[in-house]
Design a protein that fits this description.
Elements: E1 3-4, E2 16-26, E3 31-36, E4 50-51, E5 58-59, E6 61-66, E7 72-76, H1 82-86, E8 92-96, E9 107-108, H2 110-113, E10 117-119, E11 125-134, E12 139-145, E13 152-155, E14 163-165, E15 170-172
Parallel strand pairs: 1-9, 10-15
Antiparallel strand pairs: 2-3, 2-8, 3-7, 4-5, 6-7, 10-11, 11-12, 12-13, 14-15
């Protein structure tokens, strides 16, 4: 299985990459739930000042610690009450793509995959990657066909996506063969 390091905003290097999203407040002293999209959830606090998607609002995470299976609790600079934490509910946290470290071998930032052309092994353009999703069982590419038809999903595995060329702006896909059951007589 391929690994993606972060969820995304855009594949352009000068854009922001989505690292997390605030949930509901926790307690009365300003702690807030935080869903982290970093490969190691608590590392979201290691990137320094984060921003909203416009780049206008700066958010400094003072501390984070695990809270349940898929959630963190965060302390945010300037947030000292339940009411001020409530104002952050739903806010997405971003970092400029240029401030992220290079991805390791066979690891990709989802932001870098979005916008790539999806081509067949023979070079025919099938569409482009319009999103990368994860519903809990691994990363899935959402492909928008050239024909304009509805998007479809493919697992982001080496079998399905054997080659990626970021410089040329494409990835090769080998869609699984759909089989149809013969009708029962």
């Amino acid at each position: 299985m391929r690994q993606t390091a972060f969820f995304m905003s855009s594949h352009h290097n000068n854009k922001f990459v989505l690292l997390g999203r605030f949930g509901a407040p926790h307690g009365v002293r300003g702690e807030i739930r935080l869903q982290s999209f970093t490969s190691t959830p608590t590392s979201i606090a290691d990137y320094g000042v984060l921003t909203d998607k416009t780049g206008a609002k700066n958010i400094e995470l003072l501390s984070v610690h695990p809270h349940g299976k898929d959630m963190l609790l965060a302390r945010v600079a300037g947030v000292t009450s339940r009411e001020s934490a409530q104002a952050l509910t739903g806010l997405e946290l971003y970092l400029s793509r240029a401030n992220l470290p290079p991805a390791q071998q066979d690891e990709f930032y989802c932001a870098d995959l979005i916008g790539l052309r999806a081509v067949a092994a023979d070079g025919e353009t099938l569409g482009h990657v319009c999103d990368v999703r994860n519903f809990g069982a691994g990363d899935i590419l959402e492909i928008k066909p050239v024909s304009g038809a509805e998007t479809y999903f493919l697992p982001f595995t080496k079998l399905i996506v054997p080659h990626i060329d970021f410089n040329a702006g494409y990835l090769v896909i080998n869609p699984p063969i759909e089989t149809q059951a013969s009708p029962e007589d």
